[in-house]
Amino acid sequence: MEIAKVTSKGQITIPIAIRKSLGVREGDKVLFVEQNGQIVLMNSSMDALRRAQIAFAGEAERAGLRDEDDVVQMMRAFRQERYDARND
C-alpha cells in the first residue's frame, strides 16, 4: 500500500513504486477511472492501447491475415497501389 498527500492545489505525487508498476514517466498522462465505486489510476497510453486492441479484435482473421508474412504481403500490395495511383 502506498500513500500520497494532496497539496492545497489538489496535486499529488505518485509514489515511485506505483509509477513503475503503471509504466508512468515524467510528462505522461494518467486517468482516474471510477469502477465499482472505487477510483482506479491508469496509464492513459496503456488504456488507449487496450481500447484499440478491443476495437480491432478479430479484424486480422476477417482480413485473412494468419501470420507476419500475410501482413508484409498486404503492406506491399497497399504501397504498390498507392505508388500506382500517384504515378497514373
Q: Number of helix segments?
A: 4
E-strand count: 2
Q: Which value, in Å, is the CA radius of gyration?
A: 21 Å
Q: How far is the first residue's CA from the last residue's CA? A: 64 Å
- Mean of the pLDDT scores? 90
Spans with pLDDT under 50 lasting ≥5 residues?
Answer: none
H-E order: HEEHHH
Strand order, main sheet: write it out: 1-2
> Given the C-alpha coordinates, what overall shape results?
elongated
Share of helix, binned: 40-55%
| Structural class by secondary-structure content | alpha+beta
For the report, how would you describe the main beta sheet?
2 strands, antiparallel
Query: Strand-residue fraction?
Result: 5-15%
Describe what this molecule looks like in 3D.
With 88 residues, the chain is an alpha+beta fold. The protein has helices at 16-22, 44-56, 59-62, 68-86; strands spanning 30-35, 38-43. Helix content is 49%, strand content 14%. The protein is elongated, with a radius of gyration of 21 Å. The relative contact order is 0.08. The chain has four helices and two strands. The chain has a domain at 63-88. A two-stranded antiparallel sheet has the order 1-2. A hairpin with a 2-residue loop joins strand 1 (30-35) and strand 2 (38-43). The longest helix has 19 residues, at 68-86.
